[in-house]
Amino acid sequence: MAAAALLSNGGVKTPATGRYAAVYSEVQNSRLDHPLPLPSVLKSPFKVVDGPPSSAAGNPDEIAKLFPSLFGQPSATLVPGDSSSVQELKIGVVLSGGQAPGGHNVISGIYDYLQSHCKGSTLYGFRGGPAGIMKCKYVVLTSDYIYPYRNQGGFDMICSGRDKIETPEQFKQAEETAIKLDLDGLVVIGGDDSNTNACLLAENFRSKNLKTRVIGCPKTIDGDLKCKEVPTSFGFDTACKIYSEMIGNVMIDARSTGKYYHFVRLMGRAASHITLECALQTHPNITLIGEEVAAKKETLKNVTDYIADVICKRAELGYNYGVILIPEGLVDFIPEMKLVLGKGNLPPSLFILFDLLPLAIQDQLLLERDPHGNVQVAKIETEKMLIQMVETELEVRKEGGSYKGQFKGQSHFFGYEGRCGLPSNFDSTYCYALGYAAGALLQSGKTGLISSVGNLAAPVAEWTVGGTALTSLMDVERRHGKFKPVIKKAMVELEGAPFKKFVSMREEWALKNRYLNPGPIQFVGPESNAVNHTLLLELGAQV
Amino acid sequence: MAAAALLSNGGVKTPATGRYAAVYSEVQNSRLDHPLPLPSVLKSPFKVVDGPPSSAAGNPDEIAKLFPSLFGQPSATLVPGDSSSVQELKIGVVLSGGQAPGGHNVISGIYDYLQSHCKGSTLYGFRGGPAGIMKCKYVVLTSDYIYPYRNQGGFDMICSGRDKIETPEQFKQAEETAIKLDLDGLVVIGGDDSNTNACLLAENFRSKNLKTRVIGCPKTIDGDLKCKEVPTSFGFDTACKIYSEMIGNVMIDARSTGKYYHFVRLMGRAASHITLECALQTHPNITLIGEEVAAKKETLKNVTDYIADVICKRAELGYNYGVILIPEGLVDFIPEMKLVLGKGNLPPSLFILFDLLPLAIQDQLLLERDPHGNVQVAKIETEKMLIQMVETELEVRKEGGSYKGQFKGQSHFFGYEGRCGLPSNFDSTYCYALGYAAGALLQSGKTGLISSVGNLAAPVAEWTVGGTALTSLMDVERRHGKFKPVIKKAMVELEGAPFKKFVSMREEWALKNRYLNPGPIQFVGPESNAVNHTLLLELGAQV
């Protein structure tokens, strides 16, 4: 490897040591050499076997109309067998949407697959997300270019973006790029929207008789892009471990100080997977799960009362402290708040609710709207709102004599610090396999599939590898009178093993203090190869 | 060790494994067995050698009057020699003030010293801080009781408190406890105020002819309790590593997304040591150091302009993102803000400044006052204030044509999550030595000293051990017409090596992106035994 300036941020590798001293910390450097084992099936000759025809997650007739070329295509599984013929490929890769730890390893996996199976291939990295495809803004990814990003967090190798390829003009631009670069394939690394977009692109290329095939990869720390064949999205494992370290520290602080209730809001947008996983890792006194709040049609008053009830019971036991986890999207799960958050004017029936809200939150509701008139949920400081509402409720109870404790709230928001951490060993390995699989699927001529790596509770050698028809994950939503295909977000299942495990424990956690402090992500030593609880429980393992 | 319920939170040790599965994570468990090496001088027979008579940090005449029994006493150094005679001791220990990682190890060190040098001794842990001394609320610390807290964060073994022993009645209560428990000694683990209090207690016991001796230990994550003999306070190393991990992650996020300026406020109260250390570990684009702002007599407008200047220059280079570190105490360093923050009514000259402040901050300034009428600086969201002020300034520049970039601010406060983390290897070992030294000083009949472990840039074996006269760290302040002894807070020295190193780098960091992501605290592997930059630089090492 040359001693050239390799990194986008100006780092120069020291040939003698193989280290990037100027721009990388010791831990970053040490991660470069962390080994990335492959599932056995990817290490020997393999062939791709098709399963039965697929359908859709809902409204198959509409999905069939929207994807005439792709609908019904089978999922693919890699099994030992004759390797397909070696051919040079031209492949593009794009990162779409918010960061998730491990994205760089997907790219490393694609690259290494091409190197070992299709010598002479070219990998183009589109810069800045889907806009890079439309503008044909790319970099040719070489071994030297990719190596410094191995097992590193962030998306800074080629950066990401939130543009979508939607209009006929935009599809046309994408076609022009595919033709100009003579692309055999494109890997779209993204969340539910980006993978829907990837499938539309696959359909479009196929319908135009372009050779460019499209494979998606499941990315989001939120953990809400998953199904039977795609057991988890990458980044979730790392983000939860980083948040849980911080929560564990705050718990020790709470117990040591004995006088604060820490209200911790956690990133995770629509679904509450991150909050649930962090609860399973740390055992907080109170955990709000948005999906449960919605299912029980709870009001803001119900939620406030639930928190206040636990605080009162704890006060009787002599505990005037605790830790409360709150999912970022909570307010979106409360039916009455949904109305407050919606477009247009407030229905008169909700004036009273609105008046109950702390002033600062009223401001946020009135001011923090996006260009479409929607409230930007991520900007609402739900943790501060709840502190004030609980405080008010406890004052009432104090006057009534039913509460004799002391209440002091401390608010936290853990978000950005988890999105770009150094990927855990699990995410590092999982992403590398996802990328490798994407390469194999493209070489086998597949399109419109999402890279699928399964059997994740087993040792890496036994992981299964294949691709799932993106159309099989889809349903339609009616928008502006038209059906739009969507991959349904996987919400927390109230009948699922992770939630049930949590329910079986939460009363004990509420009143007894069963705090667990997982400590920093461990790359070496105990637990360094442990997988998150959600995934293990969903896979039927005992945790 | 018995299989009894050992932990305050109800954990039971599994005899077969020696683990605390129900209440401890794997990492917490693994830390229990992390070895704690001792400086060589503590491993062989040693004697205590006195240095020359000491003076005071300022106003020695007044300090001499305040401490007639203790003033002028020499510092003590442990050197190889005949061990002092074995005697049973009764020692008390108390944790005072806010948490800092490593407090439990100080207690472990005292205990292990007594076990190995004064068999049959008793160690009392006063519960809930100095109030535990006054109320004689204690627990007898046994091997079984202490072991589960070895190398663990927090102060939950005996908890802490912020009470002071100040009035004649309170001193009387402390005397009663000392007599009742027949205490030979007391170790006060605390910050500057608590160590001042420890010295007053030592003086009081001595003047009353009680045998109870008092030794202090330097504790505070803020890093502002230090001097030549006490090179650092414990907890600073761990807290900075935890904050730097988070900052490093946010940096990768900033670079990947390319559209946010992250304003990160860091705990650390009066002094900016934590912010400076985190800057040295991570290389942010902008770092505000309170002591520099004060020395240059900068206004809030100056600070805003400085940030806006860097943002404008970066925009010209195509960077519309960055990371800015802000010390918690910043507003206290800005002369005009000091007036706004002070008691009483706002001078008319400052109405204009006040009007410039964002509304939410005006509210905080008006409402968040403590019972003494002072603004609670920790509650002012300086990071949000600066975002709004910078935004306004950049809008003006945009209209004037001197700024063409895009500005979006994201605010963060990193505080509680760092105070109670699992102590770094350095803090674990340093604290154990501090406790061990405190035991040795008490056995040697010393009082009014602060446990001092030095030569910290060298291997642990070569660390020096002794005690420094607390009166030598003191000056007086006039309060309510009376002289009060105080240990002066050690502020960031603008002529010191850490600040100079920072100054030599900050222009490069501002415009080029030299972000370093230190990654999670590493207990094993690369950098796991590295010491923080501030300490190494202050000790003259090259970093």
From TrEMBL, chains A, B:
InterPro entries: ATP_PFK (IPR022953), PfpB_PPi_PFK (IPR011183), Phosphofructokinase_dom (IPR000023), PKF_sf (IPR035966). The record marks K219 as: Important for catalytic activity. Its cofactor is Mg(2+). Pfam families: PFK (PF00365). The record marks D193 as: Important for catalytic activity and substrate specificity. Diphosphate binds at G98. Catalytic subunit of pyrophosphate--fructose 6-phosphate 1-phosphotransferase. Catalyzes the phosphorylation of D-fructose 6-phosphate, the first committing step of glycolysis. Uses inorganic phosphate (PPi) as phosphoryl donor instead of ATP like common ATP-dependent phosphofructokinases (ATP-PFKs), which renders the reaction reversible, and can thus function both in glycolysis and gluconeogenesis. Catalyzes the phosphorylation of D-fructose 6-phosphate, the first committing step of glycolysis. Uses inorganic phosphate (PPi) as phosphoryl donor instead of ATP like common ATP-dependent phosphofructokinases (ATP-PFKs), which renders the reaction reversible, and can thus function both in glycolysis and gluconeogenesis. Consistently, PPi-PFK can replace the enzymes of both the forward (ATP-PFK) and reverse (fructose-bisphosphatase (FBPase)) reactions. This is Pyrophosphate--fructose 6-phosphate 1-phosphotransferase subunit beta.
